[in-house]
UniProtKB/TrEMBL annotation:
Transmembrane segments: none
GO-annotated molecular function: heme binding; iron ion binding; oxidoreductase activity, acting on paired donors, with incorporation or reduction of molecular oxygen, reduced flavin or flavoprotein as one donor, and incorporation of one atom of oxygen
UniProt record similarity statement: Belongs to the cytochrome P450 family.
InterPro entries per record: Cyt_P450, Cyt_P450_CS, Cyt_P450_E_CYP52_ascomycetes, Cyt_P450_E_CYP52_fungi, Cyt_P450_E_grp-II, Cyt_P450_sf
Source organism of the structure: Clohesyomyces aquaticus
Protein residues bound to heme: C473
Domain of life according to the entry: Eukaryota
Name this protein carries in UniProt: Cytochrome P450 52A12
Cofactor: heme
């Protein structure tokens, strides 16, 4: 026992010495190159606590994560930092487990990372290796040629004629409506509508992707019987998918120590996800071409069938489908959940939006045709979506690794105006959640939900709900169209909301952080959206 303790202490001392020497040598080289390029170092955020190598800072992040408030924690920390001239500090150094990293909420720097110097930055081997057990080397977990091939493979599948098929969406919305029966008093029972949104989006996403919906919304209806014949069903998959993402998110918080989150349970969840997707891949590879048709005999568009025209590799198909399913399910369901929290908090906006919807699209029972172009041209609906995504971007925090020695245009020096040297391998993290709430960019009411702020506003790099540059989300229009359609149909049917008793409702005066967020690879309200709805009487 005594020898074991001595050995552990020796290992710890050796690690500290190694990190210290490595840091000093690296810092000397860094400063020399920095001077050669005419760059200045941004302010460094001190390690808050007694533990070295940024461990104390990491503990604060982990604590915030457990409290479901990582994004608000970063907002609070950033908004307490100012440069020597009194301006908000938008770019700074931080220590992550002994490795220096940069954090920025500056639109110019984010534009540089994502667009103007795109080839200088990538997801990096650490992030890709962290995501690989679940997502393989799909579009969200690859760089360079692998990413280019994935992008080229997937992009044609999101043409307008594919994403504007609202007949498909209406079928799944009607299933959701069946899960919202109205009591004799005209109100539904209190329901976590976020759960319905996640089921709706996985149902529509699986029909779009696989040609067959998992119909998860039907599973809780009276008289439902399972289709059977599947080794992993939609409920098993949904649980495993969420759990696996949670492990990957934990790994992402650990940086280069991501592997510590990859335990046997995580691998088992990933395996369940792969088994679920493989069932559909095998069916697609075994059926004859042109066998997918609609009820009227027309050729039905199926994402997976289209992919099999380009590749017959079952692992490649599985990984691309998992990547797209992640975006197709989580992005839209999270957006809808945040929209309904905001509409509950702002009854006047709910009423105004509903009146506009009735005027432009008719009532629930006598609805006019709802089209892709009609949704796009409904300005107030689009403003509500944009404002929700401003306050609650579905991916609030992201980052890139420098693939070569490079620079950022601003953030260096005491005043924050000089260029910043970024050496190869350095992590650069950015938060659109924080940037979207900067009062110097959005005004003193930046924390408030005000759709009217979008009247005549043309946003630039200060607004990035779907990322930007070559990696901009290829499913952006799919998500916005689906979300807009669901909002229209719900507000056609229901005229009032009640959500008293929600944890977020009791904190509505608490500013930006009143909605706890469950943050995995995406964000959603951690406490659900428990509301009841009053059916309109016409």
């Amino acid at each position: 026992m005594h020898n074991s303790i001595l050995l552990a202490l020796w290992a710890l001392v050796s690690f500290i010495l190694y990190k210290t020497v490595t840091f000093v040598v690296s810092d000397v080289r860094y400063r020399k190159r920095e001077r050669q390029l005419g760059c200045k170092r941004p302010p460094t955020i001190a390690n808050e606590g007694l533990l070295p190598f940024g461990i104390s800072n990491l503990r604060k992040i982990i604590k915030a994560d457990k409290e479901m408030r990582v994004a608000p924690y970063l907002y609070d920390r950033t908004n307490g930092l100012y440069s020597e001239n009194g301006a908000l500090l938008t770019t700074f150094y931080q220590n992550v487990l002994g490795s220096p990293a940069i954090f920025t909420v500056n639109p110019k720097n984010i534009q540089t990372i994502l667009a103007t110097q795109f080839k200088d930055f990538g997801l990096g081997s650490t992030r890709n290796s962290n995501f690989a057990p679940l997502l393989g080397h799909g579009i969200f977990a690859s760089d360079g040629k692998q990413w280019e091939n994935s992008r080229a493979l997937l992009r044609p599948q999101f043409a307008r004629e594919q994403v504007s098929d609202l007949d498909l969406e209406e079928r799944h919305v009607q299933n959701m409506m069946r899960c919202l029966p109205v009591n004799p008093d005209g109100w539904t029972s209190t329901t976590n509508i976020q759960t319905l949104f996640f089921r709706l989006t996985i149902d529509s996403a699986t029909e779009f992707l696989f040609g067959h919906s998992v119909d998860s919304q039907l599973s809780d209806l009276p008289g439902y019987t399972s289709k059977g014949g599947m080794e992993v069903d939609e409920k098993d998959f949904a649980i495993a998918f969420d759990k696996a993402q949670a492990y990957l998110a934990k790994g992402a918080r650990m940086g280069d120590g991501y592997w510590m989150a990859h335990n046997a349970e995580m691998r088992a969840y990933c395996k369940r996800c792969h088994m679920f997707i493989d069932q559909y891949v095998n069916m697609a590879l075994s059926k004859p071409k042109g066998s997918s048709t609609t009820g009227n005999g027309k050729q039905k568009y199926v994402f997976l069938d289209a992919l099999t025209e380009s590749t017959r590799d079952p692992v490649e198909l599985r990984m691309q489908l998992l990547n797209i399913l992640l975006a197709g399910r989580d992005t839209t369901a999270s957006l809808l959940s945040y929209v309904f929290i905001m509409l509950y908090e702002q009854p006047a906006i709910f009423k105004k939006l509903r009146n506009i919807i009735l005027e432009e699209f008719g009532t629930y029972e006598n609805s006019k045709e709802i089209t892709f172009s009609g949704l796009k041209s409904c300005n107030y609906l689009q403003w509500c979506l944009s404002e929700t995504l401003r306050l609650f971007p579905v991916v609030p925090i992201d980052g890139r690794r420098a693939l070569v020695d490079t620079t950022l245009p601003t953030g260096g020096g005491p005043d924050g105006h000089s260029p910043v040297y970024v050496r190869q391998g350095m992590q650069v993290d950015y938060s659109v959640y924080v940037m979207h709430r900067r009062k110097d960019l959005w005004g003193p009411d930046a924390d408030e939900f005000k759709p009217e702020r979008w009247d005549g506003r043309r946003s630039g790099w200060e607004y990035l709900p779907f990322n930007g540059g070559p990696r901009i989300c290829i499913g952006q229009q799919f998500a916005l169209t689906e979300a807009g359609f669901v909002i229209v149909r719900l507000l056609q049917r229901f005229e009032e909301m009640d959500g008293q008793g929600n944890s977020w409702e009791s904190k509505k005066k608490g500013g930006h952080g009143f909605v706890r967020q469950w943050l995995t690879l995406t964000s959603c309200p951690a406490d659900g959206v428990n509301i009841r709805l009053k059916e309109a009487r016409h």
